[in-house]
Write a structure and sequence with these properties.
The complex is a heterodimer of chains A (about 280) and B (about 180).
Chain A (H helix, E strand, L loop, with lengths): L21 H4 L2 H17 L3 H17 L4 H8 L3 H14 L9 E5 L2 E4 H27 L2 H12 L9 H31 L12 H32 L18 H19 L5
Antiparallel strand pairs in A: 1-2
Chain B lengths: L6 H19 L4 E3 L6 E3 L3 H10 L1 H18 L8 H4 L4 H15 L3 H26 L5 H35 L10
Antiparallel strand pairs in B: 1-2
Helix pairs in contact in B: 1-2, 1-3, 2-3, 2-5, 2-6, 2-7, 3-5, 5-6, 6-7
Amino acid sequence: MSSEFEISRSITIGQYVPTGSFIHRLDPRIKLLVFVILVVAIAFNTSYFGNAIGLVLSLYLFWASKIPISYGLSGVKPAIPFIVILAVLQLLFQGQLFSDGRVYVDYGFVLITSESIRLVVVSAVRFIEIIFLSSVLTLSTSTTELTHSIQSLLSPLKKIKFPVHEISLITTIAIRFVPTFAIEMEKMMKAQASRGADFGTGGWWRIVQRTKEMFPIIIPLFNIALSRAEDLILAMESRCYTPGGERSSYSVYKAIAKDYLVLLVGLFFSLLLLFYPFPF
Amino acid sequence: MKKSLTVRDIVIAGVLGAVAILLGVTRLGYIPVPTAAGNATIMHIPAIIGGIMQGPVVGLIVGAIFGISSFLNATVPLFKDPLVAILPRLFIGVVSWLIYVGLRRKNEYLAVGAAAFIGTLTNTVLVLTMAVVRHYLTAGVAWTVGITNGIPEAIVGTIVTLAVVLAWKQIGKTQKSKISKDL
């Protein structure tokens, strides 16, 4: 009964599966860097062969991090209907844009060519690859490690007055407050429901009603967020927090040989995906 | 323009970022609409509010947090592409701030409302443009989605932003911290 109000439980952000594998013990900065370059490379690759390599690579990473593959599949499962609908739309309507290649069907406005089939297959596979890669990253790295490594990776930008420390503090605050606000929201929904408000009982076609149901939750949520912000500002200022001050860090990362090796391998795969002219 | 971020900028950006992430992961930020895209979104509202309250830099940062979280949580292939999920979102807060500053002299309410409306349209238009450029949607589908999703999104966005910002202006009068502005 109460399940529809249990928001804080369904939040999987910062979910971390400790298996102590090779991937878990990597320097988080290297992990993040390799993740970013691989995602960029995959996003730009349009060949079957290149995406097959990407898929095998992301499956290998799952295996190497000893995380059950079901975690990755649970990310893919809710997306299957969208993938299918998108594939059908692309197949039917995108042929005109990709009219080169061999033509299979040419009926009215429907034009199916080898190029449009390639588009459909590649964008579906690309999506699965990116889900797997981002699951490996977030499941094998704690959020603290991630924010520290963002700060450390961006630190060269300090030279051009880019507020690196501030950005990483913002990220930390954001991640820290998500569960807090989830609990607040739960309280609010229960309070409103006990006064007779109903959430999600109207049919999906009653858009206006469904939207109106949101207002008593969303607007107080923002107000709570902003008044919490006031408290935090006061607390930080009374402890003399100065933005842009020089600070040292509690945990210092040190990349060793195997980290650089992983970086080289990641770089090799991204350059391969980006620039190698795959035959098909 | 301010020289660097103040404590107030940092905390408000963080808190609004948290709201953006929360709306995404709880699916509360999606309003079901019977169109091809499936859902209208209200998750861009924190970015607009950040832009109006604390200026373009905070708007940009909150937009980036929204973009990255929607990229990581996406269940639609469209938003698993960083060029569609992250890049357009950077502009929401900046555009809202520009509109707000431009109209503030005339009428506060009008400025907030217009900033929210145009900020939402920025999100819709840029995301759909990127989707067409990256070949996820055809121009025709994008137009339909733009009209059927964009208009309700803009209206809801305006209502929520007006309510929140005007309430905050009241809170702002009794701000606890007196030194934020001097730092």
